[in-house]
Amino acid sequence: MDRFVLADEPGRGGTGEPGQVVDWESAPRFVADAMLGRLARWLRILGYDTLYDPRSHDDELVRTARAEGRILLTRDTGLVSRRGVRSLLVSHDHVDAQLRQVSAELGLQAPNPFSRCPVCNERLEAVPRSWAWGYVPPYTFCTQQEFRLCPGCNRFYWRGTHWERMCSTIGKEARTGE
Ligand SMILES: [Zn+2]
Question: Distance between CA atoms of 57 and 47, rounded to whole angstroms?
């Protein structure tokens, strides 16, 4: 995740519009248990609304999933047997395999990748490239054309090699610039 580096207090202003549109009503939303932090981050990067708080207790996870219609992702066989909640037992340790499993079992299409902050789950805003100057490493600024900004934590994001690898993991073509 080192590719997703941030800078503090970037210049704000303008009207950054998210570059892509998705039917959020039909996109699955998730809540992940404490064991699945890396998976949660990657689901966010792929555009899925994913709650993750390692301090959440089992009952809180179940309650949130029920109340908000979220799919509970868990490594805990006890949790998947809870009634009244849609859940998926993640059966792998490595995040690549986890993502492949979730993607296959739920038929994820990642219709709006690169749209959500992996740290805080906020929607990212497309921003002019010039905004990133001074806030990202010079090499990154020179080699990347598109940057997005999280309004929640003020981190800049771009599509690095991790991005390409994970896209290929779920069988989706990595997109580089638009
Ligand atoms: Zn953020």
Answer: 25
